[in-house]
Amino acid sequence: MRLRGEDEIDAISNDIELVIKDAMEDLVDRGLPLELLEDMERELIARADRTFLWVTLIIQLLRERAEEGASRRELDGILRSRTVDAVYHALLCSRPNHSKARKMLSIILAALQPLTVEELSTALAVRPDHQTFEESSLPRRPSIRTFEHLEWELVYPFENHIKGLCGNFVRIIQGKVYLVHQTAREFLLDEVSLRESDGPITWATAEEELWQMEQGDGFMDDYDEPSFHKDFADDESTVAGSPSSNWQHSFSLTDAHALLLEICVSYLYLLGKRSRIPGLGLGVPSPKAAAFLPYVAKSWTTHFRKICDKIPSSALPYYHSLCHPRFPGFTAWLEAHGMQITRPVMGGADDEQQDYLVSSFGLEPSENASSRPGQGVTSSAAALVSKSDARVLSSNPGAAQNFHFPVTADENGFVSLDFDRAAKSRKVSSYDEDFEIAMAQLTHWRRQGAK
């Protein structure tokens, strides 16, 4: 008597053989010799071990090599990839642009939902203005990049570009981009990230795979201004993980969230800058990049919360500025988020509205993060004001306590205290206050007011 399980195993083996035979016919059509493929067909069937994933990945590698031209030695090398991890490594190593492939994989790993082809393509075109965890004696500010710069970086056709970066390590199903399989995520993430991972959906569900099979879709130059790129973070330096030659367990989920946070924040700051794109005003995304705004608006605060305790204190105003009503993109991103900004609780002074949003979105570090970088009063405050500006602040500490200092948005959208206006509107006394006290007042003026 045969057991039902044995019947199912036989059925799977038969299905795999059919897939292999069909693939060999396709490879003949692609120009590989029949006699060569007959030997490979026998080897594939013998080594398949009833594993559809391994077979389909091997077939995709063979197809890639067939397009480029391959010797028997090279094809045998593919067949010797006995494990799925070995095939994953071969798939990624075969891609020409490792740095940008790592950037794309980091985005996919950190994304809170599967990104569309348009969203992912726009994210790839954004050059982050900063590295999240980097400490600096200089205040963190947005770059001069505009939506015009972003559009210059978009690579068309979007789908071809995505497939060209990671090949069959990713799938495009119904316009959304997924890792080829759950095991691909496990292959990429380091051990710490695997333990802490909350498992966002970055691979195709069974229903989507079925749709793909029914559709027969299978697996799926620089700007001419010299200063255009020079002041911005290089893609390779902002990607999560180790050098590109080592793929397995080389991605940190913390670094991936940091990268996607910086992409989102840099994108939002584009809303606050004037561009040479005809008809594009402040607070409006360019038509070619607008598809990314809903994801950015709804997700950037989540990416921030996942890593906020590792962000230097001196950098926090850079992120909080997006929540200030004077930020030119304020209304656009909140409307894309879905928040009603006209409700009564949002009334009051601009800084009160900012405090409300910072609190509502959880954009303050946890109280127990005593070891966070730059937590001291001097390091965080020194990044915000100069000694001459501190004179304005120290001359009127009551203003700091009541958080009613005038503010302004600069040409890049950053909202900060307007010391010029403050100096003109009140008489500045001599600098007879302790500098550190003035710094502390400036650093904590909103927090104390909220309490």
UniProtKB/TrEMBL annotation:
Superkingdom field: Eukaryota
Chain ranges of the GPI inositol-deacylase winged helix domain: 93-194
One Pfam family cited in the UniProt record for this chain: WHD_GPIID
InterPro entries found in the cross-reference section: GPIID_WHD
PANTHER family for the chain: AMELOGENIN, NACHT DOMAIN-CONTAINING PROTEIN
Protein name (database record): Ankyrin repeat protein
Organism: Pleurostoma richardsiae
